[in-house]
Queue: 2 jobs
Job 1
Amino acid sequence: MRHRPATRRLHLEQLETRAVPALVIDPGTIGLLPDTAGQVIELRVISTQPQQDPLVTGLNLLAQLGDGRGPLAEPVFTGVDFDGGIWDAFPVTETGGVVPGAAQFVQAGVAFSQGGQAVAADGLLVRLTVSTVGLLDGTFPLLLSSSEAGEDSHFVGSGGASLPIELHAGQITLDGVNRPPTAIRVSGSSIEEYLAGEVVGNVTVDDPDAGDTHELSVSDERFEIVAGRLKLKDDQFLRHAEEPQVTLRITARDSGTPAGTLAVDVLLEVVANPFPWQNSLDRLDVNRDGVIAPIDVLLVVNELNSRGSRSLLVPPQWPLVPPPFVDVSGDNIVAPGDALWIINFLNSRPA
Ligand SMILES: [Ca+2]
Ligand SMILES: [Ca+2]
Ligand SMILES: [Ca+2]
């Protein structure tokens, strides 16, 4: 005779819709300083029903930072204290953990003997003290739980109703310290003589802190850094014969707090220019405004009218320093042919 299998009865319970917790402890993401003892994490109570002034009768809190098991080092708790104004009755603190020898766990309890104490919204609940000594970077979980679901861990609302407390997990990140810039680079390393306002190149800064911006300065007052470009000021030029090289100290100051700075020396070669009367960027652009136009012809013509066709001095002499770029052909002679080069160019362009 076969036995009928025992009937299993599936008992379905309808989950009760839980009321919105009146009290929430949510650490969120907390930034701590790397390699520093005595860091403080403040856990605050967020009351979602502040008007009801819920009362606390006691709380046991268990907190965990990292997992305490390694192999990588983790921050450790070094203390815990209920010292906020609303939690000042009979605090009991105890550090230790479920992992032997690890200090990643902290346990704290507070009890009020007089039937509870009102909780203010955003009230300070507990301070956890943490050491990050030996750690520079990282993100670590911060887990919170109530140690027991007993009478010692609940709140009562007005009228005596028990209010659950909701504990949220958070995390801590070690990124609070500003690190100074680590490198300054200039994209160019030379500068041509007799070119006033010449651009050396772009200045870029390396900084381990993503998002930092940098204020740049240069020690030599003949230079400036504008929009990230190192250049001579518009009324400044260099002469190879006087200084074949020039060393500039460039300083970058970052936007962190406190600000970090880095200064580096940059060596520039001052390149001799055998045709200083010619615009090396565009020989037809006499006034170096980036446009070839009748004014460029006129400047050559005016030079011819005032001083005549002639060989040009190399190096140029005062007062024609830096020299006007009237030698279009690049032979260190200014002559009608120089104007003609520009005229021919302008005439060759479609109308
Ligand atoms: Ca920085
Ligand atoms: Ca021009
Ligand atoms: Ca010429």
Note: The chain has three domains: 23-174, 183-271, 294-348.
Job 2
Amino acid sequence: MARTICIAFAIIGLCIGCGPKEVEATSSTSSTAPSTAAGYADVQAVFTKSCVGCHGDTNPKAGISLTNHEALMKGTAVTAGDPANSLLIQALRGADGKKQMPMNAPPLTEDEIKKVEDWIKAGAKA
Ligand code: HEC
């Protein structure tokens, strides 16, 4: 009888011992999981909705066309890998003394700006 109790305690002890470690292991893997960057199609959808009215192919404002990846990358609005130094992001946030875009309209949502930022951070690929 005493032996059974002993074994029971040993099993409980093992379970308590391994419990927290398991939790730690799962939380550390999830925090280092790579975030999936937005593809350019998602970014273009934002520009098409909010920007191309003024930044189209014909006489775009500030010389910046936002109609497609090629047109955008021809200019200097994007510094691939470096959103904070990209004119595009500075304009979306109204940072660094830039006029906030879209002009004469409410700013984009944080989600939309993050999408563009993540895309630039991931290399601004087509
Ligand atoms: C209603 C017209 C209009 C819309 C819509 C608009 N822009 Fe602009 N944008 C302008 C004008 C005008 C300028 C030039 C501002 C200046 O130099 O004073 C400009 C300038 C810029 C610049 C250069 C900023 C600078 O300081 O050099 C960027 C980048 C830009 N726009 C991005 C965008 C993006 C991204 C969107 C969509 C989210 C957008 N714009 C929507 C009119 C617009």
Note: Residues 47, 50-51, 53-55, 61-62, 64, 66, 77, 87-88, 91-92, 98-99, 101-105, 108 surround heme C (CB under 6 Å).
